[in-house]
Amino acid sequence: MTVRIGVIGGGQLARMMIPAAVNLGLELEVLAENEGSSAHLAATVVGDYRDPRTVLAFAQTVDVVTFDHEHVPETILRQLVAAGHSVQPGPDALRFAQDKLAMRRRLGELGVPMPDWAEVSNEDELEAFLADHGGEAVIKTSRGGYDGKGVRLVTRAAEAADWFTALNEDGRGGALLAEERVEFRRELAQLIARRPSGGTALWPVVETVQRRGVCSEVFAPAPGINPRVWELAASIATRIATELGVTGVLAVELFETTDDRLLVNELAMRPHNSGHWSIEGSVTSQFEQHLRAVLDLPLGATDARAPVTVMVNVLGGPATGSLADQYPHALADQPTAKIHNYGKDPRPGRKVGHVTVTGDDLDTVVFQARAAAALLGADLSEGAEDA
Ligand code: ADP
């Protein structure tokens, strides 16, 4: 009997699950927000993931429900579970990826290393946090942020006035997350997959580079990583996946500090941009592993296939026309580059594709991946990095 996987959300993550599903002989069905989604190549239903009836009707057509994004309201997830559907990851785990304050509180209970943080409900509380943290803080909206939206570096509490006003108008008594500004050497990510029955598999730790708050490049494995740091990242991710009961792929975003500590920044409970390199660079891609994990099938090997893999994102911008028009040039110029076109309109700032190159020499691989991405319109200019 054919096994049917239901993916809520029709973005590039759902799209990249399709080849893995085809190879494993699984049927993939997508609940997309709009016609013509990035994942329209799979059987697609168009509907609102915030509407309980739509989501319940979708769940009835599949064997397991999983996600392209983390925004399905917790109440709906609980209704699905109550109706007997397999939801992977389930609401008890997913709520910590939906709410940054809940995540900080829970990781605090587990003793996981994190930036200093506080829940701040008004300008006075933020002012007190600033005074205790050298006059700087990174403030974050607890819910709904992604790609650096909902993240702001502030030196005065008044710079958060609009967010506090929005919280008050919302009337639900919400708060902002305030964090110390971490002096990091670089950002790392540890991806792990976990089955409902408990087995886990970890990929090599990667380095991620953000430009304008968005993931721009990933180097796998993280160049020159100290084996002690790698072990620490693996133990932190394993502890989080196990204690929170995460199923499927979990990405743990980490800061490697200038004084050699690892601090957890963010969690994502789905395939993640920091794992796109694994399609060509690992024995088992994060997309295949996610499908295996949510079905509680044995996990695949996660070893790197080459000494170096580099992934470069392509964001829509003034220089990006249709990727379909531009990629013949990139293919001709960089024959080692593997180009992934998400089939989206190249609106400014939108992730429309990525390029991966594997090889033996970091400098060569970086050069080739950047050259191909630049031909597709990626803006890799320096001086663009900020929170
Ligand atoms: P999101 O994933 O919602 O976009 P993040 O919390 O990952 O938001 O923050 C986006 C980026 O902002 C991070 O990748 C990092 O570069 C920067 N950043 C976030 N928190 C801090 C912090 N406490 N100190 C320094 N930089 C930070």
UniProtKB/TrEMBL annotation:
GO terms for biological process: 'de novo' IMP biosynthetic process. SUPFAM superfamilies: Glutathione synthetase ATP-binding domain-like, PreATP-grasp domain, Rudiment single hybrid motif. It is an enzyme of class 6 (ligase). Pfam families: ATP-grasp, PurK_C, RS_preATP-grasp-like. Homodimer. One of its GO terms (molecular function) is metal ion binding. It comes from the Bacteria. Keywords: ATP-binding, Ligase, Nucleotide-binding, Purine biosynthesis. HAMAP family: PurK. Catalyzes the ATP-dependent conversion of 5-aminoimidazole ribonucleotide (AIR) and HCO(3)- to N5-carboxyaminoimidazole ribonucleotide (N5-CAIR). One of its GO terms (cellular component) is cytosol. Signal peptide: none annotated. Belongs to the PurK/PurT family. Residues 104-295 form the ATP-grasp domain. This is N5-carboxyaminoimidazole ribonucleotide synthase. It catalyses: 5-amino-1-(5-phospho-beta-D-ribosyl)imidazole + hydrogencarbonate + ATP = 5-carboxyamino-1-(5-phospho-D-ribosyl)imidazole + ADP + phosphate + 2 H(+). The keyword Lipid biosynthesis does not apply. Pathway: Purine metabolism; IMP biosynthesis via de novo pathway; 5-amino-1-(5-phospho-D-ribosyl)imidazole-4-carboxylate from 5-amino-1-(5-phospho-D-ribosyl)imidazole (N5-CAIR route): step 1/2.
